[in-house]
Predict the 3D structure of the following.
Amino acid sequence: MFPSLSAPTLFAGGTALRRRLSQAAAALAAGLPLYWVLGPQPLAWLAWCAPLPVLWLALRSSHRDAAWMTFLAAMLGLSSNLVYFRLLMPLPAVLAVMLFKVLLWLLVVLAARRLVLRYRSGWTVLAYPVLWVAIDTLMAAFLPDGNWGSLAYSQADNLDVLQVAALAGVPGLLFLLCLAPSALALLLAGGRAYAPAAGATALLLLAACAAGAWRVQGALAAGGTASVGPLAGLVAIDDFIGPATPPARAQAVWDQYAHHVEALAGQGARLVLLPEKIAVLAPAQADAVRQRFHALARNTGAWIILGIGVQDTAGRRNLAWLFSPDGAALVSYQKHHLAPPERDFLAGSAYAVQPVADLAMGLAICKDMHFAPLGQAYGAAGAQTMLVPAWDFQLDAWMGARMTVVRGVENGYAVLRAAREGVLTVSDAYGRVLAERTSSAMPGSTLLAPLPAHTPVATWAGWLGPLFGWLCVALCLVLPCLGRRAAPAS
């Protein structure tokens, strides 16, 4: 069982300074694994055990020592985001966000430690994952950036485990991911008394992996996405047409996009997806672009999805325009969730699901797909494929693309995402990335791939994911009141 914590139990002996230096070194060592999993491109395999050293130190140390060591480890781990955050925010905001995230780690680790030491029971293995799922759920619901970078997204390329997202969404995936280090920490710090909890955790993880593998392989065996639909083209040119862009350069970028559309349509693409906010234009300039791409859609016989910003007297809007080859009226979608550099834009609220190339397709823009409720709304509307113009910041290219892939798994649809300063991706309803290519500056990058031609895949994440997440929030209020205090949590 856990040692008495009336006095420091680790780093005993020697001078106080030597003990503090040893503790600081241990905290920094514990923070190193977090450094490689808390950034915008986490190591998937390491995410399963990265929190273990921090939890073990907290369980084996006094409350005061656990607090400052956790703070130090979390600060080191989260520092992997400093360069990325600096691209999006001024330095004071970066430091505030960093401090907020560090304090969340401190809250979760110390609260889990208190529950474990208070009850000294196998069920407390649930404390750490329940607390993180509750925090993640609250962030997703109330923060303007949602749960961006949630540790759950680290498993987006782990297909077998990723299928948990079809059952219980990101909350279910995050719970499993946090349960593993929690069980190991209790077993290592508390001894054989926690062996049953660790064994149950291992069985649950094995069952989840086996069920996920069965789901993916079953889809292939039954036809699933092995049948393919029409060809789709994706295009991204990293160059942005801004107010200071010389007119000749701006015209060259637009001409290059038109050239790519014609080339992809000539290779058989039934639709061509362009990235987000190629330019921010006044109404007259935007109307000229609209007329050009209407004509291009008619001439090539391809559907075209184009991201553009429009600024008029009402304000600035980030839009996705859908052009049909038959000259039908333009479909315009306005971005709902705005990234930090565009918080002065007007947010939209309407959804758009249209029959495109014989499939029901939904429109969303970049950050929209980082929010589960929007993804669920499109799943409920029967979308078979999501068309997502995007603009990333290079450092977050993997995270931006994979968060969108997870939305597809949660809601059973394919996703096409064309990102400037990111990657072009085509993924199916099971999270398989069927085609991918990095974007580039002029003349840009293109990708031609067949669309998955399946009907929407049934999932439970739309209702079970939110239910499980809010259940964890409720449990965080109930857990401290359960049972009687068995021992002081010093």
